[in-house]
Amino acid sequence: MGELANVPVEDLMGELMRRMRCAAKPEKRLVLIGPPGSGKGTQSPIIEENYCLCHLATGDMLRAAVAAKTPLGIQAKEAMDKGELVSDDLVVGIIDEAIKKPACGKGFVLDGFPRTVVQAEKLDAMLESQGNKIDKVLNFGIADAILEERITGRWIHPASGRSYHAKFAPPKVSGVDDVTGEPLIQRKDDNAAVLKSRLEAFHRQTEPVIDYYEKRKVVSNLHAEKPPSQVTEEVHSVLSA
């Protein structure tokens, strides 16, 4: 209680209003699936905010569990220190821990997991043991050729994280940040060769996950080639149905 005394009243009231708004929201457990550059990272925080869900990015969760030295985090660190992949069971266990926290009381948005059918089966088994299930899988469908144009045209201001695109959102002056005038860079992964490899892995490993969930009739296909605002409208339409 002592800590709350130091929180500004405006912040407390804002959080109270947010919780009152969220109390009326239905529970939703969502999975976002799509290739790199399809817009999942743009839409997930919007979904999180609009539907009072927690955003579960498995990479962030693993790092947090390792930093917190939870039992599962310690196991994950041992695997990573040996140069091994963290097992599917371990990742599902970390997700299981996360979704029991109050922030996930209305459900979650899973981004980056499951990547394989085996992972989907393990995730579903964990949820079923709690009497829950995945309510909706949002499939960010987009052609590979469009992704190449999107990704190879991206430029970043490293200090702030501001992003630009040579075609869709160019800086005012080519090659420099609008705010600071500092040089922009391209991430080393933002090239056609790396994208090709990542897309091959997506088509081989993750597309079957869409078929897996299609059989459970929970997949909604989005037109991810559209501008972000239109994709947001599609997401809202799907989740409000």
From TrEMBL:
What function does this protein fulfil?
Catalyzes the reversible transfer of the terminal phosphate group between ATP and AMP. Plays an important role in cellular energy homeostasis and in adenine nucleotide metabolism.
Record-linked PROSITE patterns: ADENYLATE_KINASE (PS00113)
| Protein keywords | Kinase, Nucleotide-binding, Transferase
One short Pfam family name for this protein?
A: ADK
Q: Does the keyword Glycosyltransferase apply?
A: no
- Which NCBIfam families does the entry mention? adk (TIGR01351), PRK00279.1-2 (NF001380), PRK00279.1-3 (NF001381)
Coiled-coil ranges (or none):
none
Q: What class of enzyme is it?
A: transferase
Give the matching InterPro entries. Adenyl_kin_sub, Adenylat/UMP-CMP_kin, Adenylat_kinase_CS, Adenylate_kinase_lid-dom, P-loop_NTPase
Q: Which CDD domains match?
A: ADK
Quote the EC number. 2.7.4.3
Can you name this protein? Answer: adenylate kinase
* GO-annotated cellular components: cytoplasm; mitochondrion
